[in-house]
Amino acid sequence: MATARPSGRPRDPDVDRKLAEAAVALFGERGWSSFTIEAVCRRAGVGKASAYLRWSDKTELLAEALTTRLGEISDVDTGSVRGDLVQLVLQLTDLYGGEHGRAALRLAMEAESAPGLAERCVEMVRAQIRAARAIVHRGIRRGELPEATSVTYLLDALCGGAMNHALTTRLVPPEVRASAPPAAEFAERFVDFVLTSMLTRQHTA
Amino acid sequence: MATARPSGRPRDPDVDRKLAEAAVALFGERGWSSFTIEAVCRRAGVGKASAYLRWSDKTELLAEALTTRLGEISDVDTGSVRGDLVQLVLQLTDLYGGEHGRAALRLAMEAESAPGLAERCVEMVRAQIRAARAIVHRGIRRGELPEATSVTYLLDALCGGAMNHALTTRLVPPEVRASAPPAAEFAERFVDFVLTSMLTRQHTA
Question: Where is the HTH tetR-type domain (chains A, B) (predicted)?
């Protein structure tokens, strides 16, 4: 989609940053159904004209803000599959539990609301799949994982687990759920849990 | 919270059902920030007076609707820990992926918006914890699981995995994610994945 920006006129990075911050925060708190360019400008303390010079519609504004503020999941090679997966889970708990966590969760849930958002969401999942796939393939090459390890189920367990951890830590009172360990400790313990067999004897299929 | 219902006047179950269905659908689609008693009545085709006879505010209306329509996660004793966990995952994919899945995901994310919703969300998580705890304890008694098995991480992996599966199946185009198997097949394969070790040799801690 082309933006309605007069050629030759440079964008002010400070205004860009304020608008992106306000867009991500507003979307996280109230969701797509309450998202308007006017509300973003009010929150950012920026005149509406500045926003309309940059974006012709609110989907573009939000998609660009999410892209610049949420960051990307990337693959980190630590030398062992356990270390790599701990880094992946740390990035995921940071994404869902951090400052912009509500916006990331909203995006996962409300992406259907607008085509520009769906694309951004697919990009987020694609980055997770790329990182997980690279980790699994290295683990197989190093002989740490069986050849047939499923990237899909590994992602369901790890991404889902990180999301569930972020959601319940945010919502559920400590007397209902065991108190949450720091992010680094959660990542290590949870990866060990997923990697290490729990069955003491083989189940009969 | 007391409802403003005249004593001696029976509630019409058909009107109750229509209002509850409309409330859950509307909340799932547009979230708490767009949720009003008026909008629920419009969608249900029911006069506003009927709703105001039953509920004094919109939080009560939604909390009651979610309680009656979303159902509860329950513990099913199949005789093996694998069978029990497959039943748990099936209930979870049904909760998040089924007809009311969007409302369940919204509830997990927007529970902070209102105290009555937070309570309902805690109740949902509490039922999941109760079911998982019963399954783990039976598995330990039968000698299938080690004594120290963590209910918390098991829940993160299984509930999170079911949520992630439901979200990505809904959102992500098939060329990005491997095509989704039927719910029963996903539940069996995913539980086997979580229960069975993937490491071909012990990692060095």
Answer: 13-73
